[in-house]
Write a structure and sequence with these properties.
single chain; 759 residues; alpha+beta; 9-stranded mixed β-sheet; 7-stranded mixed β-sheet; 19 helices; 53% helix; elongated
């Protein structure tokens, strides 16, 4: 305990410079703790949103008689895309039996009443056509307890029981799980893995840099205590007292910074992702990680940095030769690159792994090993390059810079490590964005909307066909072979004209109206063939006689648009005149076709909602829930990259400033010896730029390998991404330019002989 008190007394009585350094350590630590708190609270925010979604899930009325079910309210949910956002419409009809109201509402809406979320309320003002999907008048807003997030688009619509023939009775609300989580478990694991790479790795480097400010001066002060008779362990405790005190104060300040940031950003929101301030409240585990974990990291760094001064005090004197860095730092880098190279080789040879067990452990391990290896090998690599360049150059500025880096490679490590890890993490994040882009990318020029044919009246079908944005419509239905069992494959029947067929396909050859035709798709799977002359039965239902069709001999080849499978391969094209206009077969699907741009899709869905508000619409290839999740993940990844950039730049600023202060005696000595300011500035810039450039090249190379290995295990079609390389190189050049500009003002015109009096 006396060592801790001595460390604090030395801090308070060691002059203004050390107190300023202590304040910088605490301030830098607070930035790191704030970023750590942001990362650790993201799962809690997502869990709070999922909890509110689970609380509004209906509970079906089970274990009651059919007569009693008729007394319960009816419930029907429809989720449609609005652009790339889900629009949830919940239709409810009151019953004679009262049940609790949905969360956020005071009562079950009556017929004609509509309760909307605040986000949907604002959207209705900007898009009046959206009101067609909500039959009724708006009478109120849904409270926060009934919304997953503030910008969610959801509405409760009151209907009559006759309008909800497909609804089912409910006895209340609230379940233990949410059917559509904000981010799925597998996607959340990817997010955690990426956040660890782009935030936590640079954060560990940054906190280590903050804990080692004025390392040389502190080491000499500790060596003096050791020479005065203190034991090695007591010297380490004295050093740890100051560092832990700075980390503890910084942790408290950082948590305060997070609270202010959470209150502000939660009200403003991020693109495509908002939350309530209470969702971002600090949990117990987050408080422990920040208030205990960060001081513990500072304790370990302080003990490690004081080990040399405690073991051999004379080794830290100004004239002592620094020990050469060990080559053992290459071990984690080689291990991580070995794992990444193995997966890259598997992808190049066509043996990409399909299981998710082993890669889910090895790939994160490889990323951590490579990130650690980049930091541990930077000292050795920079010393080697500096020695080679110093021997071959004839430039005074370059020679001085390289000799300084050769004599003190640890300074280059502190300055460059944060930015090097940042560029490595950016390459990895780019791989995650590529994988997500493969999921959301829509290359088809058309969009199909599947609607149950039996749920539409004749007037509704005609209204849907007349919508201006609908370019075509087709009806597909199941058939059965006459005389065969139900398990035997039978072709699908497409009810459409040749004009409609050409509107939904890329190319059609030899189509003739007025007669059945065999369709053969060139880009679809070839199902079992139907023999020419066989009889197909179409069950129309609704009192209509079944229709029999003979499999025709004439064949029409067609080619569908890429990623758009509207027609089944080897279907039978039947003219609409073959079926009665009033028929409503249960197995038929009414498919509308439009262009695939987002504005057209939105107008078509608005039109469908106006004609048939409660109809179940399935947009083909448009998983709006997955799109919403991916949008959230992209936003959080963007947040992580911003945090990583803040941490990397802060690590550079802190380390470069600290290094410049430590080097003032050497700069003053060179000035007194006649070195010009221009030469000294060139030396300062070269000392920073060379190790940084070497580290950035290593980061880009290893980052691309780690990115490729991740894409190989992701199951996508893209393994090698050369398109992102110019972006990384451009970013690296910008980083080098900023570092060079930041080094220029560190050499001043004023000469203070006091700085070299002791030398």
């Amino acid at each position: 305990m006396k060592e801790l008190v001595l460390g604090l007394r030395l801090l308070l009585g060691s002059g203004r410079g050390n107190r300023i350094r202590f304040a910088l350590m605490a301030l830098g630590g607070s930035i790191g703790v704030c970023c750590l708190a942001i990362v650790l609270t993201i799962p809690g925010i997502l869990a709070a949103q999922d909890g509110r979604v689970a609380a509004r899930q209906p509970v079906a009325a089970h274990g009651v008689s059919a007569a009693e079910k008729g007394t319960f309210p009816l419930w029907l949910e429809r989720t449609d895309p609005y652009g790339s956002r889900p629009l949830t419409r919940i239709f409810m009809a009151r019953g004679t039996k009262a049940v609790e109201a949905p969360p956020g509402l005071k009562a079950v809406p009556a017929r004609g009443e509509v309760f909307v979320s605040p986000g949907l309320h604002e959207l209705l003002r900007a898009e009046p056509g959206l009101v067609h999907r909500l039959p009724g008048r708006e009478v109120g807003l849904i409270g926060a307890q009934g919304l997953a997030r503030p910008e969610e688009l959801i509405a409760y619509v009151g209907m009559s029981r006759g309008d909800l023939s497909d609804g089912w009775p409910l006895s209340g609300f609230g379940t233990t799980w949410a059917p559509n989580t904000t981010v799925e478990h597998s996607t959340l694991n990817i997010l955690r893995f990426t956040m660890a790479g782009i935030v936590l790795l640079p954060l560990a480097v940054f906190l280590s840099v903050c804990a080692r400010l004025s390392a040389a001066e502190r080491a000499r002060r500790l060596a003096a205590l050791r020479l005065l008779g203190m034991s090695a362990r007591e010297v380490q405790r004295v050093n740890a007292a100051e560092t832990v005190a700075a980390a503890g104060i910084g942790a408290l300040i950082g948590l305060g910074e997070y609270w202010v940031l959470n209150q502000f950003v939660s009200r403003v929101g991020l693109p495509r992702f908002t939350w309530y301030p209470s969702d971002g409240a600090l949990s117990g585990s987050t408080l422990v990680a920040c208030l205990v974990g960060c001081p513990m990291l500072a304790w370990l760094v302080a003990r490690a940095s004081a080990r040399k001064a405690a073991a051999n005090p004379l080794a830290v004197r100004r004239t002592a030769v620094e020990k050469q860095p060990s080559a053992w730092g290459f071990l984690p880098l080689v291990a991580g690159l070995g794992i990444a190279a193995g997966y890259c080789l598997a992808g190049a040879t066509g043996h990409a792994p399909h299981d998710t067990g082993l890669p889910s452990v090895l790939i994160p391990s490889a990323v951590v090993l490579i990130g650690v290896g980049l930091v541990t090998t930077l000292t050795y690599t920079c010393r080697y390059v500096a020695r080679r360049v110093a021997r071959s150059t004839s430039s005074v500025a370059l020679g001085l810079a390289m000799r300084r880096n050769e004599a003190e490679p640890g300074g280059a490590l502190r300055v460059a490590s944060g930015l090097v890890v940042l560029v490595f993490a950016a390459s990895l994040a780019q791989g995650v964005l590529i994988e997500l882009d493969q999921v959301t990318k829509n290359t088809s020029p058309i969009q199909a909307y599947d609607i149950p044919y039996a749920q539409l009246t004749t007037a509704q079908r005609q209204s849907l066909e007349r919508m201006p944005d609908v370019r075509a419509r087709v009806v597909t239905m199941e058939s059965s072979l006459v005389g065969a069992s139900e398990t035997v494959w039978s072709p699908e029947v497409v009810v459409a004209t040749c004009t409609q067929l050409r509107a939904v396909t890329l190319r059609v050859g030899g189509c003739v109206d007025g007669q059945p035709l065999r369709l053969w798709g060139s880009n679809g799977s070839q199902d079992g063939p139907a023999e020419v002359g066989e009889k197909l039965r179409l069950q129309l239902g609704g009192g209509h006689r079944n229709v029999s069709i003979t499999v025709p001999k004439r064949m029409v080849r067609y080619r569908e648009f890429e990623d758009a499978l509207v027609l089944g391969s080897q279907s039978i094209l039947v003219p609409p005149s073959e079926l009665p206009s009033s028929a409503r077969p249960e197995s038929a699907t009414f498919t509308l076709i439009s262009n695939s741009d987002s504005d057209t899709v939105r107008r078509v869905l608005d039109g469908i909602g106006h004609v048939a508000p409660t109809i179940d619409v399935i947009p083909q290839g448009l998983n709006i829930t997955a799109l919403q999740q991916i949008a959230v993940v992209k936003t959080l990844l963007g947040l992580g990259m911003v945090l990583g950039a803040v941490i990397g730049v802060a690590a550079y600023v802190v380390a470069a400033t600290d290094r410049a202060v430590e080097r003032r005696p050497q700069v003053t000595a060179l000035t007194l010896l006649g070195a010009r300011p221009r030469t000294l500035r060139a030396v300062q810039v070269t000392q920073v730029v060379l190790p940084l450039a070497v580290g950035l090249l290593l980061a880009i190379g290893t980052g691309k390998m780690a990115e490729s290995s991740y894409l190989v295990t992701g199951g996508g079609t893209v393994f090698w991404d050369g398109a992102g390389l110019p972006f990384l190189l451009g970013g690296a050049l910008c980083v080098v330019a900023v570092a060079a500009l930041g080094s220029l003002p560190l050499v001043g015109r004023r000469i203070d002989p006091e700085l070299i009096r002791r030398d």
